[in-house]
Amino acid sequence: MKTIKFTLIIMLAFSIQLSAQHRGNYNEITQDISRQNILTSGNAQIYNPTVQQQINKALYPSNIVTVDVKALQNASATTYTAIFNLYQMGPTAEKTSQLMKERIDSIKYRLNSKGISQKDIAIDVISFIPIYEVEVTKKLFSKTYTEVPKGFELQQNIHIQFTKTNQFESILDACAQSEVYNLVKVDYYIENIQEVYKNLQDELLKLIDDKKVYYKALGFDMSKYDVAIADDKYCYFPKDFYQSYQAYNSTSVEALNKNKGVTTVKKQASYYYQPLTYENYDVVINPSILEPVVQIGMNIKLVFTPKPVEQKPQPIVKTKIDHKYYVISPNGTIDVKELNTKQ
Fold first, then answer.
1. pLDDT, tens digit, for every residue of 77-128?
2. Residue 273 lies in a domain
3. 329 within some domain
4. Beta partners for 104?
5. Residue 259 and residue 261: Cα distance in Å, rounded?
6. Full-prediction pTM beyond 0.85?
């Protein structure tokens, strides 16, 4: 009976491990999807509530026409700049500066052999300060505590510019051999960003013209509409889109085999690049990407409202009535008199 229970526990733990691998390491809770329902038409379960709301979205007709177009371009960086922090301590200012210079010269020499010249390397001095320790002086009835300099601390940043991503591995190796491990960040630069914006603008104008033709085919005469416009542009770099996660499952199965308590391993935080998704864009240039890129976008929104109907002024017709009265004398003479209506 104990053997059956032990086997059942192992099978259960093994099935849990397989389930975790099937989902991947990214810890995301999703609903189960039946493959049989997917294969049969009409029974597929929509497990994403956002998608379900979009499909069942109600439409409300209106005589106001809105053209909202968005374009995105994935652009590879022209140059990259890696920044490393160097920390050096020494007994004197001269010795500290000398040790730092030796480390930097070693990095420059190794990078030069990898095709990165001196003009692509810059040094940024962060701080150069003395380090104090407390010296205790004992007297007959008291003690004196005095701060005295015992050494110096020098911090510098080394900026290394490169043009190809495969050069970064050589940069890491050169820095590691000089005992430099603190990578601060990697900046991305695009020299022709104005050309990218111009390209996005041209694509949006083409799309707007196509939409005008579409609305004209539906019976809308765009010349009879007033237009209001709003536009926007933006640029995002890879550092803005790194997200973290922890492993979904890390239980040790070996503890079960030894009849010991289950030991959970500390889950290491991992990071992954999550760029902007494309579902909200009408135009995406260079959609397939292999490495982190700079994402540049532009939005244009046009609102067409019907022009007010011009009302022609109605002519004012004035009717003038002449009031007269007739006086007939006894002998039959008729005298016409004007009636004064101004009194």
1. 999 999 999 999 988 889 999 999 999 999 999 999 888 888 999 999 998 8
2. yes
3. no
4. none
5. 7
6. no
